[in-house]
Every structure is written in C-alpha cells, then in structure tokens.
Amino acid sequence: MRSGARESMPGMLDTVLNLGLNDATVAGLARRSNNERFAWDSYRRFVQMFGNVVLGVAGERFEQAIAASKAARGVTLDTELDAEALRELTYEFQGFYEFPSDPREQLSHAIRAVFDSWQGERAIAYRRINRIPDDWGTAVNVQQMVFGNLGESSGSGVAFSRDEVTGAPEPSGDFLANAQGEDVVSGVRTPRDISELRTWLPAVHEQLMEILGTLERHYGDMQDTEFTVQDERLYMLQTRNAKRPAQAAVRFAVDAVAEGLLDRERAIATIDPATLDALLHPTFDPSTDYEVVARGVAASPGAAKGEIVLSAAEAVAAAAAGREVILVRSFTEADDVAGFHAARGILTSEGGKASHAALVARGMGRPAVTGASAVEVDEAAGEVRIGEHVLAAGERIAIDGSLGRITLEDVPLVEPQVSAQFQTVLEWCDQIRTLGVRANADTPADVEKAIELGAEGVGLCRTEHMFLGERQPLMAAVIMAEDDAERRHAIEQLRPLQEADFEQILRAVDGRPVTVRLLDPPLHEFLPHPADLPEGSAARKRVEQLQESNPMLGTRGVRLGILFPELYEMQVRALFAATARTPRARIEVMVPLVAYERELELMRTLIERVAGEHAHGDYLIGTMIEIPRACFQADQIARDADFFSFGTNDLTQTALGFSRDDIEGRVLARYIDVKILDRSPFETLDTPGVGQMVRMGAWLGRKTKPQLKLGVCGEHGGDPDSIDFLHDSGIDYVSCSPYRVPIARVAAAQAAIHHGRR
C-alpha cells in the first residue's frame, strides 16, 4: 500500500509492505521461493509494520524484541537471524496486538491507514512548511510486492538520475542487498553507495542507468526513484521529481540547457526560488584550521553551529526562545519534521544520502551530516558521545553538511559566494523578467551586499534606524522640546549626522535609484520610559503627555511631518545636501502613511521648497501606500505623487486588523489549524483582500497618471508566490532584504514565464 499524493512528501505518508501474509500463506511463500528464512522474514516485517503503521504500536517495542533476539543468539545483524528466530519474533509481535489473519481485512485496514496518514501530525507539519494545501489529499496505490529480501541476489535501493547533493550529471543513491526498501530509507542500516551496484550485479546496474536517463528525458527533470532487485531482476517501484538542495537545482538547470534537455525557460521553471536561501548561507571559513572529531555523509550542504538538542520538541522550543540549535539523533523519523525546520542543522549517527534525515534536510535547505557512526546518542542520559568526548545537551557543536565534518570548535562562518552556475541562472532570469528588483537597505554595508547580489537600487531606506542607539537622546530632545527655538537647536545637531548617513548610502549605491522614506515610527520609540525618569520631574511629565494608547495608529508617518515640519525639513535638507555632493545621485523622497491627498500636497510643497535651494534636479516625490483609504483614493493622491510604493506589511495590518507581533504568536497557528488561513498573511500576500487593494491602488493611480511608477517594499517583495501576483498586477519593481534579492530575481523570471512578459 503506497500513497500517491499530488505533491511528493517524502517519508510523511505511510506505507505497508508484505500484505497478505498469515500462517497459511507464509508456508506457500516458503514453498514458492524455496527459502523458508525469506518467507518468515517477510511475515515478521508485515506483522511489525502492520502493528506500527496501522494500529499505532510503538516501534520501540518491536526493535527491543529484535535486539533481544540478536543478543540471545550472539549475532549483530538482522540478516543473521535464522528462520526459527524470525518465526519466534513474528508470534511475539502478534502478541502485541490482535493480528487480523484475513487478507481482505488486512487490505481494508491498510488502505484506511494510508489515507489517514494524510492527517498525521508529521504530514500536517510538512504541508505547513512546504505550503501544500490540506484539501489536496492523497490516493492509495495497491501494488504487487517484489522482494528485495529474497537472498543475496536481491536487494532494494534509491537512485537519483544525478547527484542529489551537487546536481552533477552522475547518478547517485544507496542500496542494500537482501533488504526491503524500508531498510534503505529508514536510516536504521547504513546502505552501500549505488556505484557498488556495478560490482555486485553489473547487468542490473547497466539497466538501471539506462532507465534513469529515459525517465529524466521523459519528465524533463532530475528523478528520484525507488527500485527492487528480485533474483537479479530489476523492478522500478516509483519515480518523482527529485527534492534537492539549491546548488543541485541550479547545477541541473545549467547542465540541462547545455545538454539540450531543456530550454532556458523550462530550466528556470525547475528551480524552487524559496530554496535558494541555502546558497546564501554561511560556510566554515576555509582559512581556519579546526579539529574534525567525526565524519559522516555530506547529506545537505551548508554549515551550522549551535547548542545540542536531542529531540524535535526541544528544537522547536529552543528556536521559539531564540536559541540556535543542532538536532542530534541516532536516526530521524518522519515525526521529527518540525524539529528539522526549527534547527540550524541536523546530525545523525546512522543513515545515508537517501535517509529520511537527508531528504528532509535537503528539501528544507538545512545543513545535515548523516551516518556519522562515531556519534553515539544517549537520549535517556541527555548526552552525546563522540570518541573520548562526552557532550551534554545544551553544549555547542558545529557541522559542515557539504563535507560531512563535525567539530566541537567555534569555527567562524563566512558569507557564501555566488557560484558560476548560479550567476548564469541569474543572468538568464534578468534577461527574462520584466519586474525590477531593489533592496531594503539602511546602511552602506547593506547597500553593498544588495548590489553584489543583483539589486537594481534601494527601494526602501528607513531613516528611523539612523536615529536609534547613540543618537536617540538627540531625537528625544527634538520631540520633548518645550518651544520652537529649543527644537530647532536639537534638530541642527542631528542634521550633519543625517547628512553624512545619506552621503555614505548614495555613494555606496553608485548612481542607482534610492527611495528614502522620511521618518515613520511612532514617537514613543525615541523616548525614555516614564518609569526611568524621576517622579514629578518636568521630563517625566513631558514623556507622559506624549504617551499614546495605540501608537502604531497615532503620531507617526506624515503626521509627524505635519505636527513637526522642522523634523521633515531637516531630513530633506540633509538629503539634498548629500545629493549635491554625490555624483550621479538619483533620489526618490517617500512620505509614509498618507491617507489624505492634502497630506501629500503639504509635504510635496515642503520638499520642493527645500529642493529648490539646491542645484540637483533629478529627484522624485512619492508616497508609501499602507492605509486602505489611500488605496481607495489613489487617483486623488496620485496628483501629487511621482511614484507609489505599497508598504504591504502595514497595509496587511491595517486591512486585516492584525497586529503582526501579536497575531503570529497567539492567533496564527489556530487559524491555520481550523483552515481560516493556510499561511501567514505577513509571509505571503493575502491576494483576495490586501492584494485586491494593491491592484485597486495601482489602477486608480495610473488612471490619473499613466506613467506613475509602482513598487512594493514590504516583506512580500521577497516571497515567490507574492511576486507572481505582483507581476500580474502591473507592479514595476519589488524591494526586499538584500539576501532575498537573488530569490526575487528568479521568482520574477518565473512570473514572466507563467504570465507572459509585459
């Protein structure tokens, strides 16, 4: 019984093998195969799997019984147990539950169990992480068994049409002789590399390589297959498009075009943009020497370090508390999927490249080292032993999933470099996409990184970050001033600092456009807490006067510029002074939180007056659209705007009535469970609601000014699904964090392929 979901979910849905065996049919299987041990091994496997998968008997009970049987007979491997030992285990297992001997009853229960596994905790967690809709469901495939455990000329394995870690054009995978597929993927036994199949069964190896090529040409994508060999005859059990890490996806796309397998557009479509984060993650500093305490299989690329946790639940709890952790296990199970998502990296002592740990880690872009046999995990004692080292949970460890190395040293991590293949893919995407990609950047270092990663400018420079830290007392003095003269004095102290900030950013961006948002956050962020000031003091009374019951909807954004015009005037004056000293500077002045057209009209008058004092004429004035009313009145607001930038973070909050900080911690999980939402609206744009506001604002704005420039500068600007919608909505550019820029470039190209170029 195999699942058949619309989207591959490796290891998340249940399988039942060897169904139909009972006390009568096991004898027939023994006669047909002339191998009594094989028949009882298959029967034992079925009773064990049926009890665990269908009826929920804990897997540890079966494994403990097997371990006891091996110890009693002085053997170490399951394959060393004889027919009599397997017969005894089978009947012992049947004592754990009421075993149905009728094959039709077995079939009915098993089909139901596979269907029910769609609603299992691990499957639900996997769908949440990978954005797979709950209502897709799964089919159940009833397949004739072939037996890889029939003897030494039989076996089972997993084969990829290319290297599943690097994407190199050499098939890879694992297999085990005299084993069923569950032995290979469970990670309980460490398998052999697929290259050894050539020595073991040359004809089977040759046939498998030919089939892998045929499947790849047919599906136009890298394939992940499962196979069984029964008495030297090859059977292909299933194939699917391979889940693979980012560098493998990029390598496959480039090679597939070079080989004539795909054209550029089809090759780009095979890449999941969300996984490209892995190419931008740190690695160990290659110039640093460190002690390698153990080695394992390089199962998923990237380096990570953190505190040791020994269970998925601990990983989730630690991540929620802001701690960086490495999940260390003997071998992982499908139920650990939430822990994989929470951990920085995964380390297991058993399993190979096709183990559950490896597959899930690669799919999530988490570094992983598997099959590190020197790592002994004692979960009961809460410790990990690596040779002479004994580590308690909470101690730090570091792994290199690209090289399979483990160290206890605090190795420095270095920023990744874009590979030649990745650069090729990005250049293809730039030729295809019509949506511009800028970056949200507030410092010269952020700007330089963004440009290095392909940003075409800065779509959001948040000036409030320049007033925090050491400058916060100066900003507080501006706000708390008792009269205009005192306020002007404080502002004049800030102006040269702000001017220097702008000049550094303009020089770093080197002639590309920079959208500078004037001061936006509420006043309280710059003020001391009243309790920190002497009771009865003038300063405390002034701070208490300025407190607001709902500051996010209070004195912020353009309201600051209207109440304290000297503050906005200082920012604009500093910006234009910096612009005058910077060759080829291109600035866009953005007024935040506009709801009324008169607000922007007043601010435009102020900006143009200050700009007129300088010789620089290459500038635009616009607004951030982040209030529902602004979307509905966009045709009026556009009269005084050269551009709109949709601030989808605040637009989502104001449109849905959600406080981002509160909703994600208290409400979101429940809303997803009861299917009000399928994901966070702050992660992916709420297209039926907020998305339609964006479209309305864009349409009304261009109704007034057909050439009005339109951008999006919320977090959604780096989300592939949101980018697809924004491309189709006529947006000119998106702006995202620097490390999301390559993702946005690929997603924008895929949107152009999907919807057609504009």
Explain what you see:
The chain is an alpha/beta fold and 758 residues long. 43% of the residues lie in helices and 17% in strands. The protein has 30 helices and 28 strands. The strands form six sheets. It has an eight-stranded mixed sheet with strand order 9-19-18-11-12-13-14-10. It has an eight-stranded parallel beta barrel with strand order 21-22-23-24-25-26-27-28, surrounded by five helices. A five-stranded antiparallel sheet has the order 5-4-3-6-7. A hairpin with a 2-residue loop joins strand 16 and strand 17 (389-392). It is elongated. The mean pLDDT is 91.
Keywords:
758 residues; alpha/beta; eight-stranded mixed β-sheet; eight-stranded parallel β-barrel; 30 helices
Shape: elongated
Oligomer: single chain
Q: How much helix, percentage-wise, in residues?
A: 40-55%
The largest sheet is: 8 strands, mixed
Mean pLDDT: 91
Q: Beta fraction of the residues?
A: 15-25%
Radius of gyration: 31 Å
Biggest sheet: strand arrangement? 9-19-18-11-12-13-14-10
- Count the DSSP helices: 30
N-to-C CA distance: 47 Å
Give the number of DSSP strands.
28
In terms of structural class, how would the helical and strand content be classed?
alpha/beta
Q: Low-confidence spans: pLDDT under 50, at least 5 residues?
A: none
